[in-house]
């Protein structure tokens, strides 16, 4: 390896944007560039994106980081990809899209998911594939396409994810890494191969899918046109990489067994890494590949920071006005008010399932509930109860993961919620565990760059990336608060069980197009 080649580019193809980041030695950021794109909703519950718009964002963002950092041709050692999971595009024989890119947020296959679970041994499929049966996953989406658009389904030559589409356009090769494949519901964890029973159920063959490769697989020989537009040499090694979720663990330094990453942005996720594939008897957690020796066990929650946003937008007019006058962020004001109330919100408990719930319940009909409201509760109690509800939901996911992988010993937090030291402390108190706050900006892009270096043999293990990441603060749990939360958390779990059937009824009142 030429010693002047000291730069690795991580490209993260996300849901709202594609971000390219140029990293120097020790993972420091030289330049970064993000290009946003929209989500199209042609029908209620659908969520699609234009694959060619995303491809162009990849090309332009790579070019932009190279230009911004003024990087000469010879200095780029490699480029590694990260991408959002669960996307699906049908292509014709010449590689042209027959559908837009149907993304994880698309809910059209709700009925197919229910049938897969109830009538087609869905739990067994989950146990073989590691992907929970849910409309987010390509498996029910493919079943939907088969049933609702049979002609298009029959005409389709390939079914690919957005990363496969980008790689196809760059290299004219259909390859899919184990990580993206492991989030399709079509891939067997034990054999690292497509699940023939699932393919049979869908009526497709392996020829409809890409060639399976490890996440460390390297491609070279990019089409000149794109290499030129990106300002890359066509033979720069490109590492196919993995999914954004599993790479985010690398990017925050949670790679060894027992280390967990908790991200709470709009939604949230808890993830830890196991050296072997592990699924849950009760179907609560996912298991996705990072490499053949690193399996990410975790669970996503729908109800993260979006709840504080909902509170701010629907009920926080007063706070928004005051914050504007003071020139501060309304979130900071809301969280300040919440601090006037003790842990437990003086008997106000909140079940946060405003957008249904994925892990641990996988129940689209779950709904939000304030429990225990009395006349002494003021707006600050409600604010605090909402923040506590988010922490309870994240804790319930962490407990499901613990059942599958064993105790979680080190927890690293990130996402918009981590901007609030008060909210972070609340989560430490709820979990009764110390939390670490790593300094990361683009965890998945950093993870993609680290995986690229690992693939090239430049770093001995993915854990090396940990040494690049500073810890900016730590939160030690307050024992008194942990005791209060422990009692309330038990009630939270009981309340969910008691309300489960009622959620189905109340959800049926919601307008179908809302
Ligand atoms: P995304 O998932 O879209 O990337 P972010 O990671 O930016 O979202 O997280 C956004 C969420 O973070 C907001 O909805 C809010 O709940 C939370 N958040 C952002 N800033 C603050 C803050 N200063 N205090 C508390 N919470 C915050």
From TrEMBL:
Q: Which residues form a coiled coil?
A: none
A Gene Ontology biological process in which this protein takes part is: D-gluconate metabolic process
The source's superkingdom equals: Bacteria
* InterPro entries, per the entry: ATPase_NBD (IPR043129), Carb_kinase_FGGY (IPR000577), Carb_kinase_FGGY_CS (IPR018483), FGGY_C (IPR018485), FGGY_Carb_Kinase (IPR050406), FGGY_N (IPR018484), Gluconate_kinase (IPR006002)
Enzyme category, top tier:
transferase
The segment(s) forming the Carbohydrate kinase FGGY C-terminal domain are 260-456
The protein's name in its UniProt record: Gluconokinase
Could you tell me which species this protein originates from?
Thermaerobacillus caldiproteolyticus
